[in-house]
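haha ok so turns out i had the wrong file open the whole time. this is the CORRECT one, sorry everyone. sequence first:
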Amino acid sequence: EQGDAAHSAGEKRVVERRVTGKTADKTAGASVARGLFQQPQSNDLLCGMYALNNLYGDAVFHEEEFAVFVRQTARELWETTSLHGSAEGNYSIETLGRAVRSQKCSMK
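then structure:
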């Protein structure tokens, strides 16, 4: 259990370092700094895109870019685009992974 908490805290430090370029030793339960970027969810299905933008702390991705990611993912996997994204903004995990990799990061 203690190892899981340490592992989780380590992951938080890695994410923070990637987003801000700084290394800070944050512990579980620490308060969130004020003034951080937050893209609120609107009435569409773009939650994956919003979540990534919130993770990166800026409006890194837009719907137009995700349309390209959907086409690239479908072409690479020899599948239809409807399996990887919809007009409403519902994206597959493969499409979200492509977006993350476009920022020189990886998903586990």
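The mean pLDDT is 73.
again sry for the mixup
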